[in-house]
Write a structure and sequence with these properties.
It is a single chain. The chain contains seven helices and no strands. It is mainly alpha-helical and 147 residues long. It folds into two domains: 2-89, Orthogonal Bundle (Hypothetical Protein Yqey, Chain: A, domain1), CATH 1.10.1510; 98-145, Arc Repressor Mutant, subunit A, CATH 1.10.10. This is Glutamyl-tRNA amidotransferase. InterPro entries: Asn/Gln_tRNA_amidoTrase-B-like (IPR003789), GatB_Yqey_C_2 (IPR023168), YqeY/Aim41 (IPR019004), YqeY/Aim41_N (IPR042184).
């Protein structure tokens, strides 16, 4: 399971005394435990899909922090957040390319009876779950529908 790999990587980071990795893994481990408590899954633990959702959420938080630090003129803090984000991204599946997203959108348009934005987005997000950013998909759907 993915959770076991994260725990093992945390142990390795502790042995190597890598401060950035230790901090990142501890933060991620705390987020996973909090999600287990939230979903009442403390005994059976999170599934890999739920764990990936937590990792995506934490990576997105890092991106928000990077943007805020750069806007505030603190590039040294942004660099630390980038390192954490890169470490988190090693656990995530590769993102879909724009061409792949476009193909999925065209399939959704042809199979959908309604040609409105909401109906298409619902179909596309199910097909791209976890492999594409929602904002990117939204922009592509609007482009395809001519909105």
């Amino acid at each position: 399971m993915l959770k076991d790999k994260i725990k093992e990587d945390l142990k390795n980071a502790l042995k190597q005394r890598n401060a950035v990795d230790i901090g990142t893994f501890k933060m991620l481990w705390a987020a996973i435990i909090n999600k287990e408590i939230e979903l009442n899954k403390k005994t059976e633990g999170l599934s890999d899909e739920e764990t990936l959702s937590v990792i995506r959420s934490e990576a997105k938080k890092r991106q928000d922090s990077i943007d805020a630090y750069l806007k505030g003129g603190r590039p040294e803090l942004a660099d630390n957040e980038k390192k954490e984000q890169e470490l988190l991204k090693t656990y995530l599946p590769a993102d879909l390319s724009n061409e792949e997203i476009g193909k999925i959108i065209q399939e959704a348009i042809t199979e959908s009876e309604k040609k409105d934005f909401g109906a298409i987005m619902k179909i596309v997000m199910v097909k791209t779950k976890g492999r594409a950013d929602g904002q990117r998909v939204s922009a592509k759907v609007k482009e395809a529908l001519g909105e």
